[in-house]
Amino acid sequence: MENKCSSGGECSGSGEHGCCEQGSGSHCGCESKKSACGCPIDKAVGMWECAAHKAWKEVHVDLLKTKIMKAWGPQMEKTADAVIEAMGIEWQAMMTQGKAKTDLKQKIASIFAENKK
Would residue 77 count as lying in a domain? Predict the structure, then answer.
């Protein structure tokens, strides 16, 4: 399929924006791919195609989120609470360790300062 650019050049029309290609990851990657001729109409069509694919995927994700919460919500809530609790304990431990290192540096600095006198 060929599209005519307003400038008269020719571009291939399908697949050049990467929206329908498999293995393109969690986003369609349209932003990084450019039309061979730089036709603004082709670019606009590609952006709309990309947006449509992204919107479809977001609808799928939203539907799955609802179903996952219905089936697993209570268990996931308990798990999330456990993770938050553990992260809080880790954070407090890091703060304690950081204070111990700061205190040690201050003590060493005062010892060195005493020796200079």
Answer: yes
Question: Tens digit of pLDDT for each residue in 21-39?
Answer: 444 444 444 444 554 567 9
pLDDT at residue 5 greater than cutoff 60: no
What is d(CA 94, CA 92) in angstroms, rounded to the nearest whole number?
A: 5
Four-point Cα dihedral 33, 38, 43, 45, nearest 10: -120
Distance from C-alpha of 82 to C-alpha of 86, rounded to nearest angstrom: 6
The structural domain count of the chain equals 1
Comparing C-alpha atoms, which of 71, 67, 11 is closest to residue 44? 11
